[in-house]
Amino acid sequence: MDREGVSHRSTTSSPVGDKEKMSYAEALEPHSHIRGIETSAETALHRGLKARHITMIAIGGAIGTGLIIGTGKALAQAGPGSIFVSYSIVGFVVYLVMAALGEMAAWLPMSAGFTGYASRFCDPSLGFALGWSYWFKYIIVTPNQLTAAALVISYWLPRDRVNPGVWITIFLVAILCINYFGIRFFGEFEFWLSSFKVVVIVGVILLTLIIAAGGADGDPRGFRYWRDPGAFAPYIAKGSWGQFLGFWSTMVNATFAYLGTELVGVTVGEAQNPRKTIPRAIRLTFYRIVFFYCISILLIGMCVRYDSKDLGFANDSVTSANASPFVVAITQANIPVLPHILNACILLFVFSAANSDLYIASRTLYGLSSDGAAPSIFRRTNANGVPLYSLGTSAAFALLAYLNVSDDSKAVFSYFVNLTTIFGLMTWISILVTHIWFVRARRAQNLPDSAMPYTAPLGIWGSYGALFMCCLIALTKNYDVFVGDWSKKYPTFITGYLGIPLYLILIFGHKIWTKSKGVRAHECDFYTGKDIIDREEEEFLAAQAAEKASKPEKPGARFYRRFVSWLF
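RESULT FIELD:
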């Protein structure tokens, strides 16, 4: 028994990939490998991500083209009131998902990430399905981001002058190099890219505030467009039912705009002092969602009418700055040059997304291998702690970006993208289910909240509520097929929902093949490998204390930490 009087359990259901029953404590290989936790020099990741890296990577995953571009379609479809309410609700759901993930990550920061948590605390088959579907999502999303970057450049250089394949090649080589040079280089690069994203969003918020107040063209708009043409636009049907359908369609848009926020759960194996940095990043995520998303969504609804012809044209532009509602607001306010500047910012947004997507893909495959669900070669690392085989395999799929250069294969590739987006939502559902099992097991083994480094603010009930919302959105994401023209929309329906049965097939196929069973609450293993993490934490804190003693805090550092660091 430990100091809290809690019995150390080691009997649990079989880890992913093993047919026979064994506990995590028993699942030690000749080199003392604990599933989901890597300690040997040949397979261990390096903890090179500092607290500032983690916090900026967390918000960098949430800020992307979904906010800058995707809000235009949502605004035109449903009106300013709908998008403000839906993005606020889904933003709170995202925070609950992140808090659930943070509670598990702070207790046991595993190299396998949330794949390992699902296997260890809930069901090995869930971990198997979660890991492979998440990896499949990102090996498709990465080439899609590379293609988007090439299309953004076509704003200045049309494809008949320069083949998009040239830009795809340049960006692919760049993100491969950034990921190859180790986690410290990647973390620093993403820190500055994410900081730039924050500066851009803050600038956009200030600009739209000035436009709404009439500072740009002398026309104070205020909430004029909320009254005429209105806050809620009807969609598909007329009247209040049509307004509700419009609102619900933006719930789906908001969900997919926030997807990727959970990537902080992939970084736990490479974070310095993860028990402090991960919860802090998650707490800050809530404030940043409110500031970046909710305020910018409110302001753009004040600057652009939802029935604006310019906004309709923007939705046909798809990728470049022309597709952004913020550019529509700038254009209507007669501000020159800025659309070109914003297009350059969008290019960096997309490049950052492609870079982090390749990182997620490589670490997810590494986590699967560490958890026993993929060949062991994928958990081998080089001297910089980079899983080269996982990185190389994931990067090879990025070559699919060249399919998008051809119009013939572009439609097929778009179906793949639509198929994989549902896997992002299934990831949130799996994290919430795992957290519910985790809390139940804690209660069964009398592990109190006071023993936890971090607990989700709303506890298990917050996860139940978020789980209900995620399931509801997953089942209704393509609802317009049922109330629209089936003959035109059935391909979207098939690819939009096919991911759900595929996910269930992965779970039950693995369960049948390995004969694994779910983890019982009183048998859940909270402790195997925890001593390793505790020792690493003690060593890091001792080194940090020694460094602080030798280097006194610089003037202004405390001010930055208390008042500015939440933003940067």
